[in-house]
Amino acid sequence: MSIAEISDKIKSDFISDKAQVMAEAVPEAVEALRLSYLGKKGKLTAVMEDLRNVSKEDRPAAGKAVNVVRQFIESEIEALKTQAKEWEISAILRQKPIDVTLPVSADVNIGSLHPVTHMRHKLNQVFKQLGFTIYDGPEIDTDFFNFSALNIPDHHPARDMQDTFYLEGSKNLLLRTQTSNIQIHAMLNEKPPLRIIAPGRVFRCDSDMTHTPMFHQIEGFVVDEGITFAHLKGTIDAFLKAIFGSTLATRLRPSFFPFVEPGAEFDVQCGLCHGKGCRTCKNTGWIEIGGCGMIHPNVFENVGYDSSQYSGFAFGFGIDRIAMNRFALPDLRQLFEGDYKFLGNFPVNAEG
Amino acid sequence: MDISLNWLKEYIDLTDLKLDSITHALTDIGLEVEAIKPSATFGESVIVGRILEASKHPNADSLQLCKVDIGGQNALSIVCGAPNARSGLTVCVATVGTELPGGLKIKEAKIRGEASFGMLCSAKELGIAESNEGILELSSHAKIGVPVLEVLGLNDIMVTLNVTPNRADCLGHIGVARDLSARLNRPLKWPQQQLGPLKSTTSSTQAKVKIESDRCGRFSVLPIKNIKVVPSPSWLKSRLETCGMRSINLIVDLTNYVMLEMNHPVHAYDDRHVAGKSFVIREARAEETFKTLDRVERKLNEGDLLICDSEKPIGIAGIMGGENSEVKSDTTSILLEVAYFDPGSVRATSKRLGMHTEASHRFERGIDPAGCQKVAARFADLLTTCVQELKSEGQILDLPIVGPEIIDIYPVPIQPRLIALRISEAKNFLASPHLTQELIKKYFKGLEFRLVDHNQDRMVFEIPSWRVDIERECDLIEEIGRLQGYDKVPLLLPKMSLAPTPQDELVDFQESARVAAASLGLRETISFPFWSNDDASKLRLSASHPLFPSIKLKNPISEDSGLMQTSLIAAMLKAVTQNRRRGVKGAKLFEVGRGYFSFVDKKFDHKAFPNWSGLIRKGRHLTPRAKQDQDRPTERHWLSGIIDQPFQQKTWFAKEEPLNFFHVKRTLESWFRIFGIQNTQYSHTTLDQYPFLNPQTSAIISVNGKTLGWLGEIHPETAIQFDLEPKSVPIAFEIDLEVALDIASLQTKRSSESFKFPPTTRDLALLVSDSVTHDEISSVIAKSPSHSLLKHWSIFDVYTGEGIPAGKKSVGWSFQFQSADRTLTDVEVDQEFKIITQFLSDQFKAEQR
Question: What's the pTM?
Answer without folding.
Answer: 0.86
